[in-house]
Structures are given as structure tokens and as C-alpha cells.
Task: inverse folding
């Protein structure tokens, strides 16, 4: 039964007032005087939609002179080729071109101002100490490179990058001018017809980006109640794309482009061209050939080259993080959280980790437990028991820091005071004081992570809290960074702290969510009707009572560039920012706020890097707090290279079928971005789910790398045990996931060591099938598992393709091991009852499985089994990586490789790590001939099958009873098993 909350016209809110020794709550009526002055960011017309905006391609461009070409690269001076244009800033007259053949597969092209000065902030170039740039291997020369660089001065400077092997142009500015101004950069590249571009994370968009799409990069708190905007800028900035080209009768070719620039920017994908624009910085391009040692090129190799050569290989995850996580903004006290853990256990739904949202904070302040609802002593005692049960706890923290009320001596917040003592917060240049924005606790400040003192301060706050509450990982939220007013609105208002944010909080009166997914009115008619009435009542109440002042928005036309002057808050080029009004000052720290480094670097330069820096700080803090334990650090905002220290999740998605569907492409683009530990909130974060959607979503995300159920206050509960159908769907999907934990963990190891991806697009695994280039309603987990989820309401079937069948690939139903009978490129209709998700194993694969337990630790203690799904040549192979699952530096590891051919499987072990569980079973699917028995040889001993140890049915052999031969550990020794006929 749907539980509806009563709405009313009068709004009263409680504000926590923290005293020196106790915490109380006082109910106050909000008035205009108690609110921060929100202000109104002017409404701007994004340049891409402004028909009156100047065309940068009418600018004069540049001419190259003093050109020096060597085997290592090219250098030249670039000089403005005509009168100043000043389309969106002040023209930079003199530039430097620097081209390097950095590695066989990578070419670097840099263009930057000739006259740089540390004190000249108009020419901020991204430093290597913040975001490392790809390194030159100092051995590659033009003659050894996959890529060639050509340039021309006709009519002005232009360049192109091509493959040496076949002269294929990969990037060409020919026919377009280069534009370089202090607040605007532009390069235009010609593209082939019907080009196929992927990446440019973070976006909620089709996986195949198409040719009528603009990607805006300006990290953005998209909105806690509305959900992520489709096609709008959200939390991450990864200026990397991969392009694939299909060639009839020959192999597909792929390459990549990485633009190392952290300024606000846009990529305009249009027919025949891609236009790159940035509001500062430099051109710092890296072109990746995607070629392997055999001369072919692929999306997979391009992505590897980006990870390994450009942004760094991703961090390795702890084994336990692969379990199911549960969180909610709405666990109002410790008892509720304890009940959730107990209810999962009672429902026999494996739960690995419980999370807390900001409910637990005292006055919404990070690092401080609410002493009434989350008392430190009781919580610490409970966490000890949780750890004894091999379960874990992860809290959310905010990067905003409450600033205390200077007129209230009892308003004490040590994390602020300790940071203030270090002078480590971002500043307001108008006053010289700290920048006082607004967030959930009230007026807030933000750490300046250009200072080493901020890293020390951040570590100290995490350590101080961890000493009281022994958490196992940390999620850094609102790290865009988010601020809910325009400008330094706390100036002169700090005496009002603590103050409510200038909007209703989720779950407040008049802010309950009554939206349900499509199909709900069919499966839940009465509840849908009740929700509709409640929504209408709430809407009526809101119209008659407006407790928060509405800000009037003024329209500001495009600002004209002034020579020698930069407008940081309203730059002449207007990004298509998803915030209301499109202004850069909306929803975040103002771009003119300054840091404390010698150059007083502004947020205009650093905005897109705040989440990257706080993620880095959190990672290293956890390393100090928990030495030699891999940090589990998740950050909502990210930049290229964040995967080296942070994981990420999809943020504020919504409980809709479309959001679930787009979660697949969202995940795939993060595999490209080098953040393999990625997932979206199962069942949706905003709005209400239902049993149909939640069943499908819990099944789907069981095959995502990061698996978490999470939703917002003011909506109905959606833990997996709430509905019987969701509970059963979750148990079944988790059983498959947990049996595959070693397979998934090995994928993470390969990502960490080689730059592979954990989730994969079908087009990556079957690159020559052009029909798959836009397919993402299905995906692969690693190279061997095909997942076909239901993505539509009230359905009991789903359609999917089985790639490679025309070229000899075999596919097996995971549950029955029966081979799929399908035609090449056929869309096959598959049965999909509510509790079932279709999973198929690829022929030619060997999986190392374990009997699923309630936790990942219990699973690791259970016996191993092997599953071989044979290809047409009766061949299969696989690999497993094993270690202790926790340590950053391992004392011992083990890798076991498996090959099945000619009726025998050979397991070759390398390394000394000891995994105690025995090998119990070996299943072989797809056999052409029925075997009669087997021989097992290990540690110089030969064993023969016994009656009942081998059964055969429908092409599958089931071998059991192997424990007696492997009692010292399944992979303690290499072994060979031969079938006998």
C-alpha cells in the first residue's frame, strides 16, 4: 500500500544548533531575513544557440614561422595573420607550436602563448603537478611512429594527423582557422561521412554520440530532486573521444583524441566536423593510433592507450567492494540502518555494505555525528559487530565546510576552525576573506587543494572521525563544487548561521515526491490514483504558500570582450551550462573566487578540477589512515585521470525506465574514461520506483562493476526486500554475480595493469560488425558474458542479438548451458520473467566460479568450480588472478591460466598466494562427443574417474568429486584433466 504524507500550507523547519556539549533542535519559521540572499544569475543565451554571436571562423588565423623539424617532432612560432578578431576574448598575438612523437602510438600537439608569465593569469596552462601530462618515451622518432604530422601555411596555419601505414587522415584542421584568445580557443577538425564517435564523458546520452550533439564540460550539481539532465553537463569532465571507421571488406579502424585542458569547454559534433572550444588554457592534444603490434587498430587498443599512456591506469579495488551496497537519504537514525541490515539478512539477500547519507550529520555538517540519532559510542559498537560479520560501512562526506556563526560562542565546529587556522580555504577576492557560499549546513567554505596544508587538514579530519567511527571507505559528494546561492552570499550574513538552504529539502513538507515510472498506472492502479491526488494537493499547497523568496532573473546579453580585461563571471563565450540561466556563477563557487597559491589562481581555471583534487586528497588520506589497504574512495565530480585514485557513480539518476536504459551508456563511457569502478543507483535515486522497474534494475546492475541501491528522502523505500518480486530477482542475480566474483575481480586486475575495461560494448568485442555500432541495450561483462536486460515496463520477453554467430561464435544460456540457435544479426525474442535476466556465455571461454555465500568473504571460502563453454574448434581459455583482496602491496599473488583443447584442460599456476578452497566441479558445455571418463593429474599424481563422477547430457559433461584431488587448494599446483572416450 502506498503511504502518502499529509501536505500543508504552512512550512516549519528545524535547524540544528550545536552547543559545546549537547545538540538541540529549534523549530523556526523561515522568513526572507533568515535566508541567504540567493540573488539571480542572469539568463544567458548559450553561444551555440545564439544566432547573433560572432563566427570565430571569420578570424584571421595564424601563420607559422621559424619552423624546425627534427626526427623527434616539430617546433614553430605562430603569429596572428591579420587584424585582431576578438570574437570572445583578447587575441593572443604570438603562439608556440610544439609537436612530439611521444610513443609509437601517440603524437602530441601543443599550442600555447609564446610569452608566459607566472604572474599573468590570463594564460593559465594546466600544470603537470595537478594533472600529469603524457610522457615522452625519448626513443620514438618520426620514422618509428604510427602517426604522421603535416602542416601548411596556405592560406593560414593548419595541420593534420594521419596514419603512416595508409595515409588515413584522423584529425585535420585544413580549411579552418585556428582561434586563440585569452577567453576563447577553437579548433575545427574535418570528419569522414557518417563518423562514429564515443566517449566525452560525462553525459547522459546515447552511447553513439551522433552528429547533432554538443558536449559541455563544466562540472555541475545537476539537481537533487529532478534527476540528471539528458544531454546536459553533469559531474565529470573527460575530454577524450574514440572514433571507429567501418571499411567494407576490411577491418574496422579506430583511433582516439585527448584534449588535456581543464577549462570550461564544448565539443560540437556536427555533420562533417567536430569543433573544439574552450574558454581558456591551451591546445594540448594527444592523438592515439589505436594500433597493435600487428598493425591493426581497434577501439579496445585505443582505450588501453588512453589509460596506460595518457591518464594513468585505474586503481585496483578491494574484493569486498564488488558486493551489494545499500544506501538511502532517509535513514533518520541508527536503528533504521540496523533494521535495514537485519531485513536483508532475514530476506536472504546478500548485503556487503551499508552506507549513510547526510542524515547522520549533526546540523548537516561533515565529520560530526548527530549525537541523538547517530550516537558515536553506539554506532562504533555496532560497526564492530558489522565487521565481525564481514560486512562494511561507507559514509558520505561533503566537501563544503560549515562556517561558524561569529556571534554565537556555542556554535563550535572544529573542522572549520582547524582549516581556518591553516588559512586553507578558497577566498573572495573582493574582501580577501574566505568565499562564503551556501550549502546544506548553511554558509560554507571550501578547501583550497592547491595548498599542501589542505591535504593535511583533510586527512586530519578523516582520521579524527575514523578514530570514532571506523568506516571502510568514503564517498565525497557535492564536489563539483556545489553552492546554492549566487556569489559569496554569506558575506555579512554569517550571524544567521545555521541557516536553511534556499530551497525545500527532500522529504520536507510540500516536497514529497509522487512521481512513478511509466507502467505504474497499469500494475498499480489504486496506488497510482492516490499518488496523483497527493501530487495535486501538494501542488495546490505550494501555490498558496511560498516560504522561499523567488529570485527574479534578468536577461544579460553576451558580454563584449574588453582588450586586456577578462570577465570571469560572465565570459563572452557562453557555455551551455545546464544550470538555470546557463550562468557559470549559478550552483557553484563563483569563477572569480581565488586560491591561495602564488598566482592567486581563480576558480575560472580550477572549477573542473575540484572533484579531481578532493578525490586525490581522500585517496591519500585513506592510505595514511589505513596503511597498505587499497582506499575505497568515490567522488561525484571527476576529471581525466581520476580513476587512478577515485571511483565514481552516476549521481542523481531518476526512477524511470529511460534512466535505467541510459545507465548502460553512462557506464560504458566511464569504462572508456578509465574509471572501471562505476555504476548507477539501482532502482533510481529521485522519484519513486515500483516492483517492476526495481526488479529489472536490481538484475541489470548486478552485472555493473559497482552495485548499489540508493534513493532520496521523500520517496518510498526501495530496499531489495520491500517487494517479493524484487527480492527474488535480486537473489537470483546476486547468486550469478557472486559466483563470478573471481571473474570480475580478474577483470579489475586487467584494467589496473593493462587498461582493459570491465564492462564492454558489443562493438568493442565484435569490431567488424557495423550493425553493432550503436547497440547498448545489451552489453558484455568482460570478453565472455553477454547481458540482455529488460528495459521496458510490464514485459515478459526481451529481444537481443548474438554477435559473431555468422563468423562461428557460439553462445550458451548461462542457466541451462544450452547453445543458442540464432541467425546472424537476428533479433531473437527471449523469455524474460520478472525475476530473470538473460545472461549468455561466449564460446571459447573458461570461467572460475565459486559457490555464492552471503558475503564476498563467505564466497571466497567456498569451493571452486570450472565452467568451459567451447567454441566451434572445441577450444576454450580463461584466466584468474588471486590475491588477499585488500592490500595495496601484495606479499603474494597467483595467476592461473586455463586452456582446453583436444579433450584436455591444462591449468598453469604462477605465484605463491595460497587459496585454501578445493576444486569441486568441472563442467564442459558444447562437446561434440560424449566422454566416458577422465584422468586428473596434479603434483605428479594421476587419478582416474570413479563411477558417478561424470555425467553427460545434451552436449554438456558434468564432472564432480574433484575435492579429493585438490584438498590442499584448487590451484596450489598446476594440473591437467583429460577426458577419455
Result:
Amino acid at each position: 500500500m502506498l503511504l502518502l504524507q499529509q501536505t500543508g500550507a504552512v512550512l516549519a523547519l528545524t535547524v540544528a544548533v550545536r552547543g559545546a556539549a549537547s545538540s538541540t533542535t529549534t523549530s523556526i519559521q523561515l522568513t526572507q531575513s533568515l535566508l541567504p540572499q540567493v540573488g539571480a544569475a542572469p539568463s544567458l543565451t548559450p553561444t551555440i544557440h545564439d544566432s547573433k554571436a560572432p563566427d570565430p571562423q571569420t578570424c584571421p588565423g595564424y601563420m607559422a614561422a621559424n619552423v624546425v623539424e627534427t626526427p623527434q617532432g616539430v617546433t614553430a612560432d605562430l603569429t596572428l595573420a591579420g587584424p585582431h578578431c576578438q570574437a570572445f576574448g583578447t587575441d593572443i598575438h604570438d603562439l608556440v607550436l610544439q609537436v612530439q612523437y611521444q610513443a609509437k602510438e601517440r603524437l602530441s600537439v601543443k599550442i600555447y602563448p609564446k610569452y608566459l608569465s607566472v604572474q599573468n593569469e590570463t594564460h593559465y596552462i594546466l600544470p603537470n603537478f595537478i594533472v600529469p601530462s603524457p610522457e615522452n618515451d625519448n626513443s620514438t622518432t618520426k620514422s618509428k611512429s604510427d602517426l604522421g604530422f603535416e602542416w601548411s601555411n596556405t592560406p593560414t596555419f593548419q595541420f593534420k594527423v594521419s596514419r603512416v601505414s595508409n595515409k588515413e587522415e584522423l584529425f585535420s584542421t585544413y580549411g579552418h582557422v585556428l582561434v586563440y584568445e585569452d577567453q576563447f580557443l577553437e579548433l575545427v577538425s574535418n570528419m569522414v561521412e557518417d563518423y562514429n564517435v564515443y566517449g566525452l564523458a560525462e553525459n547522459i546520452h546515447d552511447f553513439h554520440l551522433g552528429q547533432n550533439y554538443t558536449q559541455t564540460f563544466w562540472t555541475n550539481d545537476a539537481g537533487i530532486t529532478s534527476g540528471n539532465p539528458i544531454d546536459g553537463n553533469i559531474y565529470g569532465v573527460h575530454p577524450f573521444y574514440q572514433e571507429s571507421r567501418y571499411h567494407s571488406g576490411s577491418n574496422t579502424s579506430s583511433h582516439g583524441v585527448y584534449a588535456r585542458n581543464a577549462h570550461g569547454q564544448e565539443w560540437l559534433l556536427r555533420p562533417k566536423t567536430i569543433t573544439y572550444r574552450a574558454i581558456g588554457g591551451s591546445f594540448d592534444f594527444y592523438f592515439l593510433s589505436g594500433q597493435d603490434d600487428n598493425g591493426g587498430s581497434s577501439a579496445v587498443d585505443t582505450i588501453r592507450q588512453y589509460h596506460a599512456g595518457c591518464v594513468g591506469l585505474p586503481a585496483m579495488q578491494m574484493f569486498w567492494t564488488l558486493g551489494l551496497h545499500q544506501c538511502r537519504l532517509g535513514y533518520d537514525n541508527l536503528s533504521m540502518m540496523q533494521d535495514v541490515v537485519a531485513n536483508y539478512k532475514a530476506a536472504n539477500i546478500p548485503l556487503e555494505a551499508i552506507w549513510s547519507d547526510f542524515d547522520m550529520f549533526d546540523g548537516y555538517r561533515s565529520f560530526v555525528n548527530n549525537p541523538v540519532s547517530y550516537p558515536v559510542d553506539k554506532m562504533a559498537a555496532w560497526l564492530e559487530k558489522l565487521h565481525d560479520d564481514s560486512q562494511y560501512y561507507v559514509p558520505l562526506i561533503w566537501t563544503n565546510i560549515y562556517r561558524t556563526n561569529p556571534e554565537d560562542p556555542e556554535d563550535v565546529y572544529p573542522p572549520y576552525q582547524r582549516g581556518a587556522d591553516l588559512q586553507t580555504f578558497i577566498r573572495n577576492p573582493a574582501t580577501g576573506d574566505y568565499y562564503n557560499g551556501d550549502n546544506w549546513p548553511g554558509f560554507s567554505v571550501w578547501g583550497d587543494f592547491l595548498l599542501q596544508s589542505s591535504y593535511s587538514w583533510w586527512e586530519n579530519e578523516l582520521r579524527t572521525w575514523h578514530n570514532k567511527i571506523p568506516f571502510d571507505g568514503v564517498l565525497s559528494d557535492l564536489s563539483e563544487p556545489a553552492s546554492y546561492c549566487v556569489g559569496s552570499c554569506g558575506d555579512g550574513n554569517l550571524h544567521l548561521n545555521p541557516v536553511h538552504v534556499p530551497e525545500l529539502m527532500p522529504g520536507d513538507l510540500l516536497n514529497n515526491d509522487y512521481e512513478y515510472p511509466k507502467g505504474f498506472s497499469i500494475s498499480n492502479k489504486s496506488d497510482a490514483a492516490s499518488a496523483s491526488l497527493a501530487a495535486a494537493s501538494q501542488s495546490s499547497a505550494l501555490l498558496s504558500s511560498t516560504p522561499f523568496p523567488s529570485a527574479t532573473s534578468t536577461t544579460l546579453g553576451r558580454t563584449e570582450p574588453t582588450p586586456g580585461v577578462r570577465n570571469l563571471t560572465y565570459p563572452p563565450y557562453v557555455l551551455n551550462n545546464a544550470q538555470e540561466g546557463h550562468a557559470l556563477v549559478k550552483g557553484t563557487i563563483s569563477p572569480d573566487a581565488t586560491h591561495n597559491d602564488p598566482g592567486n589562481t581563480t576558480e575560472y581555471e580550477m572549477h573542473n578540477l575540484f572533484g579531481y583534487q578532493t578525490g586525490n586528497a581522500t585517496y591519500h588520506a585513506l592510505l595514511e589512515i589505513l596503511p597498505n589497504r587499497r582506499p575505497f574512495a568515490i567522488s561525484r565530480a571527476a576529471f581525466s585521470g581520476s580513476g587512478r585514485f577515485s571511483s565514481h557513480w552516476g549521481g542523481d539518476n531518476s526512477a524511470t525506465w529511460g534512466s535505467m536504459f541510459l545507465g548502460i551508456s553512462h557506464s560504458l563511457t566511464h569504462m572508456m574514461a578509465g574509471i572501471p569502478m562505476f555504476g548507477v543507483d539501482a532502482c533510481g535515486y529521485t522519484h519513486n520506483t515500483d516492483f517492476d522497474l526495481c526488479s529489472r534494475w536490481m538484475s541489470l546492475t548486478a552485472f555493473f562493476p559497482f552495485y548499489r541501491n540508493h534513493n532520496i528522502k521523500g520517496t518510498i523505500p526501495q530496499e531489495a526486500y520491500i517487494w517479493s518480486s524484487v527480492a527474488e530477482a535480486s537473489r537470483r542475480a546476486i547468486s550469478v554475480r557472486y559466483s563470478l566474483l573471481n571473474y570480475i575481480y580478474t577483470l579489475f586486475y586487467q584494467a589496473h595493469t593493462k587498461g582493459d575495461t570491465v564492462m564492454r560494448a558489443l562493438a568493442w568485442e565484435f569490431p567488424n560488425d557495423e550493425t553493432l555500432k550503436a547497440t547498448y541495450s545489451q552489453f558484455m561483462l568482460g570478453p565472455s558474458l553477454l547481458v540482455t536486460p529488460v528495459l521496458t515496463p510490464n514485459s515478459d520477453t526481451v529481444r537481443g542479438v548474438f554477435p559473431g554467430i555468422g563468423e562461428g561464435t557460439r553462445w550458451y544460456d548461462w542457466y541451462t548451458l544450452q547453445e543458442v540457435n540464432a541467425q546472424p544479426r537476428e533479433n531473437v525474442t527471449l523469455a524474460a520473467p520478472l525475476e530473470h535476466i538473460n545472461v549468455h556465455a561466449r564460446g571459447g571461454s573458461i570461467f572460475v566460479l565459486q559457490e555464492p555465500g552471503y558475503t564476498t568473504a563467505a564466497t571466497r571460502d567456498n569451493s571452486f568450480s570450472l565452467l568451459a563453454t567451447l567454441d566451434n574448434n572445441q577450444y576454450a581459455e580463461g584466466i584468474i588472478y588471486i590475491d588477499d583482496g585488500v592490500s595495496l602491496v601484495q606479499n603474494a599473488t597467483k595467476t592461473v591460466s586455463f586452456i582446453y583443447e583436444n579433450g584436455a584442460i591444462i591449468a598453469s599456476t604462477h605465484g605463491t598466494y595460497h587459496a585454501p578452497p578445493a576444486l569441486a566441479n568441472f563442467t564442459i558445455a558444447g562437446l561434440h562427443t560424449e566422454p566416458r571418463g577422465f584422468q586428473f593429474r596434479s603434483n605428479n599424481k594421476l587419478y582416474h574417474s570413479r563411477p558417478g563422477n561424470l555425467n553427460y547430457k545434451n552436449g554438456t559433461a558434468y564432472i564432480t568429486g574433484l575435492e579429493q584431488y585438490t584438498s590442499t587448494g584448487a590451484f596450489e599446483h598446476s594440473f591437467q584433466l583429460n577426458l577419455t572416450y
Notes: Confidence is low (pLDDT under 50) at residues 1-37, 117-121, 547-551.
